[in-house]
Each structure stands twice: as C-alpha cells, then as structure tokens.
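Take a look at my tokenised protein here and describe the backbone shape.
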Amino acid sequence: MEATVSWYGPPVDPDGSGMAFSARTGSGHVLAMDGAPAEDGGLLGGRNLAPRPMEVVLAGTGGCTAYDVVLILRRGRHAITRCDVTLKAERATADPKVFTAIHFHFVVVGRALREEAVERAIRLSHEKLCSASVMLAKTAVLTHSFEIREG
C-alpha cells in the first residue's frame, strides 16, 4: 500500500501561506486535506477547504470498521440493507495530539437482524479485523454502541 501527499504551494497558492495537501493513493484515488485557519490570522493556517488530516484518519477508521461489519453480516446471510457509524473522538491537548478516546455508534438496518449477530460483528471488527481500530486502540480507549432498525 502506498500514497503520495503533495502540498499545494506556489503556483496553486501564490503566497505559499496555505496548508492544503492532496493525497494520491496507490489505487489511484485523490483526496484533499487542509488545515484549520490560523487562530491568530497568521500565515501558518489552512483555508478550511477540505478535511483535516486527523479527520481523514477518523473517517478511514469508520470506513474500515463499517466494511467489516457489513461483510461479516452478509457472510452470515443476514439481511442487512444499511450500516452507518458515527465516530466521536477526543484528542490529547499536548503534542502529539493523538486520539485518546473514540466512541463508535453503529446504526444497522436490515430485516430481522439479531442483536447477538450485530454485536459479534462489531466486536470482531474492533478486536481482530479492522487494522485502523487495532492501531488506534494503542493510544485511545475505543467504545461502541449500536442500534438495529428494521428496513
């Protein structure tokens, strides 16, 4: 797996003051990232044109675990029609500002889904399958909740 990250400096950003980056993944996709505007209005902030890099890490973790949950339930022949996961994270206040706590709330939609099956899929993802969750668990306390909806 690989990715190339490039800063949008001059000539795209003529004064070179922005903090926008693009990432080209090994699969050929492009993702934009930007920093928050500088609190003091200085030159070291971003322009809020794209997600922050740590937001991308959080979103990627959500994608990784949702992928696992859907795959596990589908392999178990459960009638899943949708899976949403909302992640809420806390970060350390000092550098490096690692994630210290992340709560995952899953909303799983399907027909006659069993609570035990959904709980098992989430647990397997967090403990064994989702590489992002396993890595983040080294610095953050991971918790989860879920609800099942008919549909």
